[in-house]
Amino acid sequence: MPKILIVDDDYKFSEFAKMLLESVDYSAVICDDSRQVLSMAVQEKPDLVLMDISMPEVNGIEATRHLRSDPATKSLPIILCSITIHSDEMPEVEACGADLFLAKPLKRDQLKGEIDRILGRRGDDR
User: Fold this and answer.
1) Residue 126: what pLDDT?
2) Based on the structure, what is the number of domains in the chain?
3) Which residue of 19, 27, 37, 42 is surrounded by the most CB atoms within 10 Å?
4) Could you tell me which residues come within 8 angstroms of residue 122 by beta carbon, excluding any fewer than 6 positions away?
5) Cβ(87)–Cβ(68) below 8 Å
6) DSSP string covering 88-102
C-alpha cells in the first residue's frame, strides 16, 4: 500500500487528507512542521508528498526545493496544494520542481486519480 506524507500546518486539513487518502487505499503520515519535511521524508520513505504551499517558517515551495536538492529525495513525487494562490505565484510553483498543483478543497476522486497517475497505478492494482 503506497504511503503518502502529508505536510501541512493545519491539523484539521491534515486529518481530513489522511482520512481521505486512507479511504482510497493509501496509508498516510502527517508532518505538521515544514522545517522537518526532509528528515521525515528520509525517515518515513513515502511514495509521494502532499504539501500545502502556505506554511510558516518554510513554505511548500521552499520545502519542495529542499527535497529536490537532496539525493535521497530528489525524485520523490510532490503534489503542492493551497486554498489561495495568486496567478503571479504560479510560475514559482511550476519552477520549484513539484509534480502537480491542486487547489483546496481537495476532491477525493481527483486526488486519487492524480496520485494513481503519478505513481503509475491503475484502479484495479490493489
Assistant:
1) 37
2) 1
3) 37
4) 116
5) no
6) GGHHHHHHTT-SEEE
Q: Looking at this protein, which amino acid is placed at residue 50? A: L
More confident residue, 81 or 84: 81
pLDDT tens, position by position, 29-68: 999 998 899 999 999 999 999 999 988 889 999 999 999 9
The cell 500500500 sits on which residue? 1
d(Cα 56, Cα 35) in Å, to the nearest integer?
9
Q: How far apart are alpha carbons 7 and 13 in whole angstroms?
A: 10
Q: Is the pTM of this model over 0.85?
A: yes
Amino acid (1-letter code) at residue 62: E
State phi, psi for 107 to the nearest 5 degrees.
-105, 130
- Other CB atoms within a 10 A radius of the CB of residue 93 amount to 18
In single-letter form, the type of residue at position 4 comes to I
CATH number at residue 43: 3.40.50.2300
Is 8 inside any structural domain? Answer: yes
| Structural domain harbouring 33 | 3-119
